[in-house]
Amino acid sequence: MTPLQKNILNAVKRRPMTLRELQNNLQVDNSRLRTSVSAMVATGELSMRNGTYVPGFATYVNANAPETIPCTLVKLAARFGFASRDDGEGDIFIPGRALHGAMPQDKINVKLFDHPRVEGSSEGEVVEVTVPNNRFAGTVCLSEDGRLAVEPDGCRDVKFLLAKQGSEGVHLGDKVGFLITHRGNRHSDHRAAVVEKFGSSDYASECAKAILYGRNVRLEFPPEVLEEAHAYDDATIDPTEAAKRLDLRGIPIFTIDSAETKDIDDAISLQKLDDGYELGVHIADVSHYVRPGSALDEEAFERATSIYYADKVIPMLPTQLSNGICSLNEGEDRLAFSCLMRLDENGEIRSYKFVKSVICSRVKGVYKEINALLEPEEGADLTDLQTKYAAVLDQLPTMDELYRKRLVLRKARGGMDIESNEAKLVMDENGRCVDIVKRDRGTSECMIEEFMLLANQCAANAGRTNKVPFVYRVHEAPDAEKMEKLSATLLACGLNAKFKNPIPTQLELAALLDETRDQPIQIPVHTGILRSMQKARYAPQPLGHYGLVLADYAHFTSPIRRYPDLAIHRILSEMLTGASASQLQKDFNEFAQQASEKSSKQEVAAVRIERDVEDLYKAEYMHSHLGEVYTGTVAGITPRGVFVELDNTVEGFVPAAQLCKGEPQVIDGVSMLDPLTGKSWMLGSSMKIQVAAADVALGRIDFEYMVE
Fold first, then answer.
1. N or C end of the chain: smaller count of CB under 10 Å?
2. What is the per-residue pLDDT for 64?
């Protein structure tokens, strides 16, 4: 910094000054002053505010803040980044010059600025990268001077030159995995080397492989895990173990899943009683095979969940268990953990018990087929289905009856039924997406969900009332700030929704959901309510489930694909042996805490992967429909433009410049107005569009507005 620049900085530290005030104060040549001020603005040492110069982000730090704040960089673009505070206190905006080359998932220390550009926001500078993340996936491109480079996924317009060694055979547009081999103080100084070549970015399957690589997903099981799994090759149950259990093989138990499901972890049985029902939910006893301290258990803990995308699965457990000895396959004896419930004639739980059992599923039921039997179409020939389900056919009307009663109870307590559009991707033999179908939920899907919910409720109640360590599925009430935003959204939608208290009851929100269902404003209302909710997570404390309106809730029913379920199976198993609460506290307190934290973190990562990969396949499908015209629904509004969703759940972007001749006015994120033409668009309104572009590598689809 030159002597003049130091004098300028000292002057504006005392008070904000205009250029003329600086000239009078410093008595310096106007041309020389302008040159110095311009240079200081460019380097961030000065900022302009309300026509005056003040210290810039590279100069001022917050003297009242801690020296540095431990963070993780979570987003990076060419001119800015966002760091998430490790203490959970929110995000910090990092201007481009203050990033100093930090990369996504770097552990960093950040110093806050005293004068953020936006009043009330948190801005800061990266002062240290404590744990660098050098492993990324990306797309091969050219640098501005024509050299081979790579753009990391999720970091648009950030490019690193590729080292010649290791980049042989790499072509423009290839998806690759790479390592940062040299870090500079700026992103443009970083250098990278390709370590994995996946193929063309025109193919979603190759881009998906790159995402998995970049997110450090464990695709292969370690040798020690596979060695333990091989002990269960073509395994059958141990007769000695079966003899110790409640034998339920004489009961017509069966499974209901999608046709393609191979890891079947839940089965059901139902008997009508004079004064109610006896419902059995029978879950694969994975905890019998995956023991604490084993390599299988340690790997399952690290993965915490299976990841499902397109027509593939990355399982939590090897196939010998997930598709073999632990899967409740039709006609095969299996060890199970059963929740046997007595319900009264209204469907309310009267009592329950958990037992270790041995079962044999009579039929592998399929949702679509069960729906056809429960709600037959006029003139449909059901002879083949009735033959297939003969062993359990008489249970179906009773199951439907109980489900309807449970549905009444759920509505009465305010259980929220938020509409969400799930897609089923149809793949060809080459793994390319050739169709996208909206996934409809019929009676059998909802029925099984309700029966699983009952077992989950009983499991959580057993943990809470016995005061033992547990892994609960918790969903806390929304906070007041989110409720204010929701109220603004509802008002913008023309709904004068007044809640009795700052935090509405579930009944109040459920009424809004039902009132707007199948209406044009369904999307903004349902989406607004969903966004106002806290995220469900796992916790060792029984905090209840706001959305389901249940004091007791846990995940018990899917131990093949979720570690929390396996964890509470292990705890419940010890309870059944008669272990005391104090002994269980000693054995499982730390375990329940660790399992909750790890499972919550891995669930978030898995959901992001599944969504991001689904976007790739949707872009691949729409790429073969460029130029086609559709009518969609406005699903999101931003100052940059609107998001339009088609009937097949595909979402694309229409830039504001195509819609508005003037500066667009966005009202509460619900509507956009063009002040020059008077035209407006609202969430839920229809819009005619043409497919303009589909970038598979980015999972991005662009639409062009078609004037009607």
1. C
2. 53
Structure tokens at 696: 């598979």
What's the CA gap between 64 and 43, in Å, rounded?
Answer: 24
Please calculate the CA angle 680-686-689 and round it to the nearest 5 degrees.
95
- The single residue listed with the structure tokens 């969504």 is 611
pLDDT of residue 198: 93
**What pLDDT, on a 0 to 100 scale, did the predictor assign at position 1?**
65
The letter for the amino acid at 231 is: A
Q: What is the 3-state secondary structure (H, E, C) of 239-268?
A: HHHHHCCEECCCCCCEEEECCCCCCCCEEE
Does residue 691 contact residue 652 with C-beta atoms inside 8 Å?
A: yes
CB atoms within 10 A of CB 674: 17
Cα gap 395→403, rounded to integer Å: 12
Q: What is the CA radius of gyration of the chain?
A: 29
The distance in angstroms from the start CA to the end CA of the chain is: 59
Burial class of 203 by CB neighbour count within 10 A (0 to 12, 13 to 18, 19+) = buried
Q: What are phi and psi of 373, to 5 degrees?
A: -75, -35
User: 337: alpha, beta or left, given left = phi > 0 and alpha = psi -120 to 50?
Assistant: beta
What is the C-alpha separation between 654 and 658, in angstroms, rounded? 7
Low-confidence residues in the chain, pLDDT < 70: 1, 42-44, 50, 57-66, 119, 166, 708
Strands lying side by side in the sheet with 107-112: 91-95, 80-85, 69-76, 107-112, 124-131
Q: Is the dihedral of CA 367, 369, 374, 379 positive or negative?
A: positive
* Residue 229 near residue 296 (C-beta atoms within 8 A): yes
Residue 42, Cβ neighbours under 10 Å: how many? 11
DSSP state of 305: B
* pLDDT value of position 610: 95
CB atoms within 10 A of CB 449: 12
Token pair, residue 548, equals 């389901």
- State the maximum Cα–Cα separation within the chain, in Å, rounded to a whole number: 100
pLDDT of residue 42: 67
